[in-house]
Design goal:
This is Tox-GHH2 domain-containing protein. The chain is of the alpha+beta class and about 350 residues long. About 20% of the residues lie in helices and about 15% in strands. It folds into two domains: about 5-135, no CATH class; about 170-330, no CATH class.
């Protein structure tokens, strides 16, 4: 058919296409009855569907089958279907809408129409927007979490800072204002989204070794103890210093990277029995506490709210199959900071001036 035009091997989303975004779940909406126990209604998750034939605000000059094409951040499906029963006055939990718009959150990276990336039918979407979503999702916290007034990242004010200063997706926004606002936002180790913010590097608040087997001969790192856990996908914070031993060239003090790692080990060792050997297990909830406390304690990250950091660590590791009730395993993470003497500046003798003749 004439509307079957592809980008990167995937069909481009356009008004002439027969594509659908089916079963986007959950779209949580307040649903009757409204009772004294649940005044706004009962929050019920619904699966939502969007149709390419509802494309709006698409391309103006480039057409497929004489109809507009979906473009990054500009276009949307004007309605979605499936949440009609959520008709209590508040409606959607986040957007206060039902049958709201559908936006794409991914697109082709190298195929553009009118200077904008084109959306493809298998790219990710979010549903039931009143307009473009009013909350910027964090890598390990979604819009539902950040819409709750009692969430620690909302109460601490970090969510508002990010929302006011960053664009979507925040990991791609390396402006000075966004880098400053998102310094407490945890991101995956890979791809590296820290380097654009002043050359910072990703650091695992909970060391990878705490969730890995002990390293065997010939291995650079032990194998993960949990099937879904991955070093690259695990939550990290952007810090100064390329590795745990990198130091300030003037003061010789450890950079943030090393200080955060050492602080974790100090806190962990104070919480677990002294008799534990390398590889022995302890409660993962302790690792969550120590990781969050270490980030809050180090210079440069002292503005990071401990509860907000812990919430991200918990959510991020749950996505990787590690629950707070699971176990961590004592690794070789160093607790002691090796001291270096400050470099001594050589002093040249000063010549005594001759008296005037």
């Amino acid at each position: 058919m004439a509307n079957q035009v592809f980008a990167n091997g995937l069909e481009i989303s356009c008004k002439a296409a027969e594509g659908k975004s089916v079963g986007c779940f959950p779209d949580v909406c307040f649903t009757p009855p409204q009772t004294p126990a649940t005044p706004p209604g009962v929050p019920i998750p619904y699966p939502n569907t969007g149709l390419a034939s509802d494309t709006s605000n698409g391309s103006r000059t480039v057409k497929i089958s004489k109809k507009e094409v979906m473009l990054k951040d500009r276009s949307y499906f004007k309605t979605s279907y499936g949440d009609e029963a959520g008709c209590a006055p508040k409606k959607g939990v986040i957007t206060s809408k039902i049958k709201g718009k559908v936006y794409f959150t991914a697109w082709s990276m190298n195929v553009k129409f009118e200077g904008q990336n084109v959306d493809r039918m298998s790219d990710l979407t979010t549903h039931n927007h009143g307009s473009q979503g009013n909350t910027v999702p964090w890598p390990y916290l979604d819009e539902v979490a950040l819409a709750a007034d009692d969430h620690p990242c909302v109460q601490s004010g970090h969510s508002k800072k990010v929302n006011d200063n960053c664009k979507k997706p925040i990991t791609d926004d390396c402006s000075e204002a966004c880098c400053k606002a998102r310094r407490c936002v945890l991101v995956p180790y890979s791809p590296n989204s820290c380097s654009g913010c002043g050359g910072k590097t990703p650091h695992h608040p909970i060391p990878v070794g705490e969730l890995s087997e002990q390293r065997k001969k010939g291995e650079s790192r032990g194998q993960p103890r949990y099937a879904k856990y991955s070093e690259g996908a695990a939550p990290c914070i952007c810090v100064e210093g390329a590795h745990h031993d990198s130091r300030n060239t003037v003061t010789t003090e450890l950079d943030e990277h090393g200080r955060a790692g050492a602080k974790f080990a100090q806190l962990r060792n104070a919480r677990i029995p002294k008799k534990l050997k390398l590889g022995d297990e302890y409660d993962f909830s302790i690792a969550l506490d120590c990781g969050a406390q270490a980030i809050s304690a180090i210079m440069g990250c002292d503005g990071c709210d401990e509860a907000c950091t812990r919430a991200q660590l918990e959510k991020g590791h749950e996505q990787l199959g590690v629950k707070p009730t699971d176990k961590a395993f004592k690794s070789k993470q160093k607790a002691k900071v090796r001291r270096f003497k400050k470099p001594q500046l050589s002093v040249l003798p000063v010549a005594t001036p001759r008296p005037p003749q």
